[in-house]
Amino acid sequence: MYIFALRTVLKMKLNQIIRYTLLFFLLATVWIIQSIPSMGQAYADHAYPFIASCLSSFSRFIPFSLGDLFITLSITGLLLYPIYARRKKSKWLKILRQEVEYLLWIYVWFYLAWGLNYSQKNFYQRTQTPYVAYSSTNFKEFAFNYIKKLNTFYLAPPTKINKEMVRREVTRIYTQIYDSVGINRPFISHPRVKTMMFSPLSSMMGITGYMGPFFSEFNLNKNLLPVDYPATYAHEMAHLWGIANEAEANFYAYEVCTRSNIPSIRFSGYFLIFNHVIRNAQQLLSKEDYEQLIKEIRPGIRKIAQDDYNHWMSLYNPLVGNVQNWIYDLYLKGNKIKSGRRNYSEVIGLLISWEEKTKIEKLRQIIKHKL
Hints:
The protein is an all-alpha fold. 68% of the residues lie in helices and 3% in strands. The protein is built from 17 helices and three strands. The protein has a three-stranded mixed beta sheet, sandwiched between helices. The longest helix is centred in the C-terminal third of the chain and has 24 residues, at 347-370. The N and C termini lie far apart (80 Å).
C-alpha cells in the first residue's frame, strides 16, 4: 500500500504537487477561519478590506461585470470540457478529478475574496445593541411611526435617476456613519457599480442586485425603477463594505438613505422596507389595527407600491424564480443564515432594536446633562 502511494506521488508532476498542496492549505485556512469567531472578525476588519481594494483596483476600470463573465465562462467550461477531454481519450475519473479541483479553487476564491464575511460577528455584537424581541405591541408602535415618516417624505417617483449623485451621496453618508453603526469604513473612494450582463434572466428570478465577490464588484439590475435604485444601490454597497447578512444590508441601506437630504434618496430608503412592514403587520397586528395602518398610507404611496409590484411581476418567471429561491435559500442556510431567504425581512427586528438603543442613549445623555 505504501509502495503504491509512493509510486502515485512520484508519477505526479511537481507542479501538481505544489498546486494540490496550496489548494489544501487554502481550504484549511478557510475552514479554520469559519470555525473560530475571532478569526472571522479579524478577516472582516483587516484582511477583507485589503483584498477587496486590490481586486477593485483593476476591476473598476472594466465597464462590464467581470464576475458575470467569469461565472458564465466557468459554467460553460464545466459543461463542455468533458466532451473535449473524452475526444482526447482522457478517462472519466481524470475528468471528474479535474472538474472537482476547479470547483474547489472557485470555492477558495469565493470565501477568501468575500465569503468569509459570513463568519464575522453579527450586528448586535458589533454595535453592542441589545436584542429586542419584537411583539405585536412594539411592532405596532414601530409600524405606525414608520408610516408617518413614509407619508411625510412622500415623493412622486422621478422618471430618471442621477446615478452619479446617488454614488456620491451614499458613499458620503457611509463614510460619516460607519463607525457608529458597526460597518467597515469605505475603503474605495470611487466605487463603480456594474450593470448585470443578464438582467432579463435576473428579473425572471426577482434579483435586483448582487455582490460580485470574485472581483469585488457590486452589480445592479438594469430594470430597476428610479424609486428602487438608491436603496438597492446602498444595499449592495453594504455588501461591498463586508456585510454578508441580507437583513443587515437592508438595515444599512435604510439608515444611509433616510439620513440623506436629497428627497429621492431619502424616500427610496423609507420605501425599501415597505413590503416587509406590511407583511409583518398582517401577521402581528389585529385586523382592526392592520386596517387602520393601511388607511393611513397615502394613496400616492399605495400606487407606487402597486406599480412597483406590477413592474417586477411582469418580468418574473415563477418556475425560474422558485428554483432560484430554493438554491439561494440553501446557500444562505449553508453560510450561517439559519432563516434563509426570510433573512431579508429580519431588518424590522434590527430597526426596532436599534431604535430602542438610540432612545436609551438619548435618555442617558439628557440625564447626564441635567446632572
